[in-house]
């Protein structure tokens, strides 16, 4: 059903004369900004199920606005900082709403939202000391982290904890200890990374695992060629297929509303001190009018499963990281360690300030330091102060290879299928019935 | 105060919980302790919650109209004067839902929950909190709220209730919210407490979930946890067989197979199982060569032992078979590439078969490995960038 609709869209558009086609491939920037700003001020009843995730809503909206190159007015910024401050727990961390128990995911969202807003007031509102204590409390004996007090341990928690600690400059040995071991144990026989040891390789968790390993400087421990292989296989858009979940048992239909993925369009702005420079705004639309549906929080992205717009981020994000790991990848493949930048037709020039500069053989540079080969199997036990800069240095590092996926096809898919074929109005929603 | 509540608690005991029980509510904020007595048999509200589940949320009797909650002062979430992303429910015929944010918040069950929470956590060292309507908490739209479940666990611990009931209660909610992290985590917590006796029930339950969605990620993680923590490995490989017979493309089942083969204490481990599993994978490949899963499974069987993969004649042979058949050959070519990158010497037969599937009548690469990459760029154009990169990252061929 969904696939047919997608094929129909493609069919329709590509039947148009060329000059009429192009309008469908434009990112309707102004429409999106309007929609986002409106959403920041008011969200409809369909978002009730996200009442414990409001920092996420803030983050998705704010970051999307930022990536679109716009900014917020002072009053909104003030409101955001105030609101997130209310979500901050007195003992550290951020909950899903004012007074709610702190949770690593909402902490990640809140911190990144505040960083995106930027400025003295916003940044100083984050109680780093308490947050550190919170992260330490979430640390589990396995080396991983719990999502919340008494909560589940998985790779998402590792990433959100490490990422937040890194960007706030509070990452240290105690937090890092054994995380690498845990994440490594989650890399499956397929090459991707699972949520927990033994589970299936999954795009979302692969991103989390890979990014976390980069931040703690242990990415060399992963089987990178294996990870690349499964990732590029699974990230491919084949003529546009959209995943959705049909809960047969109760005659209820999930509907995704996936807004747009800005990776290949806006790319990572170098102003962000984030582990990865791109985010995806995901809005879940719940069917109205009598059928109450539920939020689908599952990220699909596994072998023989359908493609989903949100994987544009997870897989695309992995692609962005991989591009900067060329030296390590070559080493693991047993190839000579020469830097080779293949300009190709799809170079990702916007992603980094220093993209594209070739290095001669063996030339050392500050950016290359973090990727120096490490002893196999040994984790970096002496995480000095420098470890907090690893993430930033990494994304500033040179890109060693082109994106290994078809970036244009991805953009097409997103613009056609997620942006929709509306006639000029702001429409990020899948308006048909699925 | 301490001794009083402890005394009352011991008098009541856990058995009272199910039939009907009383709760004590200590209002710490006013510096006096209040005793709130309310009954909770299977009240209408509870019944509504339990039987209807999340999707009937809008049919619920509003909290303000439930006598057993009458003495609890709701503490609505305080968004502040300039909230962002405020969620306002729509106006509808349901009296508790209004478009007025404050009224909604007052009637939101979470407001009552906040009240309980405040008192519970503010009691220093006194954990005995005999709550009513524990069944309500966690059964409604709060199902996605981590703190509600966490609080519920604290109460369940304090009350020392029979967790079989709890598991049964969670069953329906899980089925209705099968992709909710909180519920599966809660389930795991309950199962862990119940121990090995519950293993077969949990395996049965996940089997039920899979009958609706054979790839539910949470259910698979739960099942794996059950096997490792509580046991029940005996029929697991057979169950994988069953699922794969049903859908040979089910990668979750392939993953589970790998899990069983490598970790089951009953099977002897990967080394012992490898041979028969290779045969199994090859059979699946020949049935549907376009199915990526068995190819990955095959590679996985030789993890950390790649030379054995290269030297196992069955591997090159299955590639050859698929190519000769001229069926979907992308995965076969990918495997050939992997073999070549580990210095496999291809037979002439294999080389001919590869060339035969090339859309380009005059391939220009003299190097066989590079030729394979070029062919892949043509037969699998969407991944052309990837195959191009593979070409540049082939080790030197002998």
TrEMBL record, chain A:
Residues 27-420 form the Prenyltransferase alpha-alpha toroid domain. Its EC number is 2.5.1.58. This is Protein farnesyltransferase subunit beta. It comes from Sesamum angolense. CDD domains: FTase. Pfam families: Prenyltrans. It is an enzyme of class 2 (transferase). It comes from the Eukaryota. Its cofactor is Zn(2+). InterPro entries: FTB (IPR026872), PGGT1B-like (IPR045089), Prenyltrans (IPR001330), Terpenoid_cyclase/PrenylTrfase (IPR008930). Keywords: Metal-binding, Prenyltransferase, Repeat, Transferase, Zinc. The keyword Disulfide bond does not apply. GO terms for biological process: prenylation. GO terms for cellular component: protein farnesyltransferase complex. Belongs to the protein prenyltransferase subunit beta family. Residues 346-380 are annotated as: Disordered. Binds 1 zinc ion per subunit. It catalyses: L-cysteinyl-[protein] + (2E,6E)-farnesyl diphosphate = S-(2E,6E)-farnesyl-L-cysteinyl-[protein] + diphosphate. Heterodimer of FTA and FTB. Catalyzes the transfer of a farnesyl moiety from farnesyl diphosphate to a cysteine at the fourth position from the C-terminus of several proteins. The beta subunit is responsible for peptide-binding. One of its GO terms (molecular function) is zinc ion binding.
Automatic annotation (TrEMBL), chain B:
It comes from Sesamum angolense. Pfam families: PPTA (PF01239). Keywords: Magnesium, Prenyltransferase, Repeat, Transferase. The keyword Zinc does not apply. Its EC number is 2.5.1.58, 2.5.1.59. Belongs to the protein prenyltransferase subunit alpha family. This is Protein farnesyltransferase/geranylgeranyltransferase type-1 subunit alpha. It is an enzyme of class 2 (transferase). GO terms for cellular component: CAAX-protein geranylgeranyltransferase complex; protein farnesyltransferase complex. One of its GO terms (molecular function) is protein farnesyltransferase activity. Transmembrane segments: none annotated. Its cofactor is Mg(2+).
